[in-house]
Every structure is written in C-alpha cells, then in structure tokens.
Fold this sequence. Notes:
By secondary structure, the protein is of the alpha/beta class. It is built from 16 helices and seven strands. It has helices spanning 22-30, 43-46, 56-65, 67-70, 76-80, 91-105, 122-128, 141-148, 158-176, 189-194, 196-207, 219-222, 228-233, 248-251, 254-270, 282-292; strands at 12-15, 35-36, 53-55, 88-90, 110-114, 133-138, 184-188.
Amino acid sequence: xxxxxxxxxxxxxxxxxxxxxxxxxxxxxxxxxxxxxxxxxxxxxxxxxxxxxxxxxxxxxxxxxxxxxxxxxxxxxxxxxxxxxxxxxxxxxxxxxxxxxxxxxxxxxxxxxxxxxxxxxxxxxxxxxxxxxxxxxxxxxxxxxxxxxxxxxxxxxxxxxxxxxxxxxxxxxxxxxxxxxxxxxxxxxxxxxxxxxxxxxxxxxxxxxxxxxxxxxxxxxxxxxxxxxxxxxxxxxxxxxxxxxxxxxxxxxxxxxxxxxxxxxxxxxxxxxxxxxxxxxxxxxxxxxxxxxxxxxxxxxxxxxxxxxx
Length: 310
C-alpha cells in the first residue's frame, strides 16, 4: 500500500476541446510520482448551486450519486475523512476534499484535473481555486473533427464540429490569457507530440514540479488507471505519441476541409494552422451557415466514404 502523503495546494486543470489529446496529457502527468489526475470530474461545475457554502450532507449525497465521481472508484469514507465535521462547508473545501482523498489513496501529494469542457468555465474555477493553474491543449480543429467521425458521441456534421471547436478554443483564449503566464499556458498538440519531453519539462516548470523520467515511460503504468472506455475511444493513448496518427490532410475530403475552414478558418489562423482554402466558396459558406443553424449538412466522414461530401 502507498503511504498517505500530505497533499499540497496549487491544483491544475487540463482543458480544451474534446479529442485534442487531453487524455494523453492526463496519462503523462498522472505518471509523475507526486501527481494524481483522476478521471474526468464534471461535478465541480455541475454540483455548484451559486453559493460559496454548501450543506455538508447534501453535498456528500450529491457527490456520491454523481456518475463521474463513481468512476473514481473512491470510497466516500475517504472523502468524509478530509472534510470538517461542521454542518456547512465552503464549496471550495468540499470539492477539494474529494481530490485530496483521491490523491492520498494513490500515494500522491499533488492533484490535478482533466475535464476538457472546463475550458468553458475557467473564470469560475480560477476564482474557486485562486492558486490553480490551467493547461489549455489545442489541436488542429480539422483533426479534431476527423476524430469525431465514427464516434458514438459528439458532433455529427462538419459545421457543428467546427463551431464547437472554435467556440471552446477561443473561450480558453479569452478567459485564460488574462490570468497571466504564471497561471495559464497553451500547448499545441502537434508541437507536443513532436517534442514530448521538451514540452513535459516546460509543463513541469509551469506547475513547479521536478521533472521525472517516469512521465515519459507511462505506457505500462497507465494500464492501471486508463478505463476501458477511454482506451476504446483513444486507441493510441498507451503508445508513444506519434505525429502521423489521423491526419486531415490525408483522410479528410476537400469538401469537408473547405466547409470546416468556412466556419472556423479565422481560428485556425489564430493558432498558425495553414488553411487549404483561404477564400472558401460561396456554397461552402452557405452550407457552413446552415450547419451552424442545426441543419444536417456536411456529415462527418473519413475519406473514401461515398457520403463524405454531402
């Protein structure tokens, strides 16, 4: 059994658009001997009721019933042991109790969170945990869209995928950058996989952690904490990062590329991603507008699908 270590403050949050490599980053960070990053939480924002204090028992019951918390496989007694006996608790302390309990259960002294959708709630989290830090992972939106093709969840059309990606990426920029370099950093996924060790070392500096080689030797360790579902939807997560996994340049039909760029081309340019269509056609722009309104146009599909350009 691992020793129960005192858990320090300064939590961190890994955020970004889904399908952007956040699971890989969670696996790497969780492989640090001092860091615990549980499965996605979601409950931090979903259990918030607009008040800085919560009824202790009401909160514990809601946490116990939350589907994402149940996936942590953490006994409620462990959480209760980290909380005051007072009938009312600061919401921050109640939430932190769950993370501290998880960290101690895994013999770790620092906790983080990987919930991509929290990119939309950075101001809330930054206020809730004033010492927190944010890692915003950004991936080329065309590869993000391609990654959704064939998945049982997420957007089913190119315009919808482009809209979600651009909105979430720009929300992170809008709300994260004002926090300053000490609390917020952006990492391009493509750059990360090209020089993983270099970026991991920089992230350790950002988080004030000592770099540990175990972070790059995560494959065997990760098998114990990557759920079957996560591995199924991220089949390469237990492999060394590769730059050639799923490329829109090879697998995304031109019509889909043009449609994506008609909707989110400016955001691609914001991050330095080259565009294939600097001036999308009028028909692509029209389909983009219709798609963002909810019409089922531009269905997502890999190259070679006979319906990929509809």
